[in-house]
Amino acid sequence: MYIDGVFSGGGIKGLAYIGAYQALEEKGFKFKRVAGTSAGAIIAALIAAGFNSEEMYEELDKLELTMMLDEPKTFIPLKVLKWIPIYWRLGMYKGQALENWFDQTLQKKGVRTFGDLPPGVLRIIASDLSNGRILVLPNDLYKYNIPFESFPIAKAIRMSCSLPYFFEPVRIKMNQRKIIIVDGGVLSNFPMWLFDQENVIKERPVLGIKLSPNNNERPPKEIKNALQMFEALFSTMKDAHDSRYISQKHVKNIIFIPTDGLLTTEFGITEEGKSNLIELGRERTLNFLKKWTF
Hints:
single chain; alpha/beta
């Protein structure tokens, strides 16, 4: 059965999507259209390119995650002073290693640009900080006078995954100005609104997969110091847009995978940790499908 799928952001926690994808394949579900933010965009793009769950597992299993942490070259000797270039570069890591790996991976399926995919199959969310707006790729590329047919999907993935201050933002030119593009999660971490809209008849069921507990099950945040307040502030800003959209009507079409306790940027995750995340995604999805009515 064909469905449309939407995947939330979540960094390393996105490994749980592999298990979810395995379960969906086992039950005979196939994706017609996919969309995602950050880690969700990675999974969505792999699905759109034609990777099945087994191939996806093989690609991500052999990937050395720490290789994605490509520090910019610096002549500053002291470790503590390496934070200083963030003032200009706006990120600890370049993000080029992620883009290169993803480009090479997609080419195994003969896919490189959005023009290599059927129209409308894949949508990726990023955040245009310079203009203060959500960027839907490839749909919004015309606003920057960029032809979507030749735009690399890996570049769009890098945009969507550019977690502020962790990865450097992607810069593009628009009317002689540099536009700063960062992680899509800043403005929409779970873009289910792309496929599931009010008063619009759906062509097929829309299934969302979100790396968090249901908002009704999430305990209040403990805020006792400035760091906890910053984390709560960023988390609230990230989820506010999508939480307002997700009504009880939409909740019945969302698989919630609670991954609290694991950092989004935990690139040193152990093999056991990877396996646990994949199994969690598979288990949650199988339980959801037992009672899903569409």
